[in-house]
Amino acid sequence: MLQIKNHPLYLKHDIDSAMSSLWEFYRGRFFSLFLISFVMSLIIQYGSTFINIKDLQTTTDPMVLLEKIKDYIVPILIISVISLFFSNILHYYIL
Question: What is the pTM of this model?
Fold first, then answer.
């Protein structure tokens, strides 16, 4: 693991130097951060197509709604795990 003092965002900052440092950090890594975020967004959007939100919103009986949600529990869990995985990648990459 790299030393924390070697990280480009590790310095004492005032608001101007902090914003400048963040701008340089993201500008230098924009393509990889954009690519990871774009792929994550596409995968999450594709996974969300398996959940019929309109059907859930039109249901007024709570028991029927719970039965319908049981059918969607697997896609919701898959979307959550994938989202958590990509979020960890982004956090590890930045930190």
Answer: 0.60
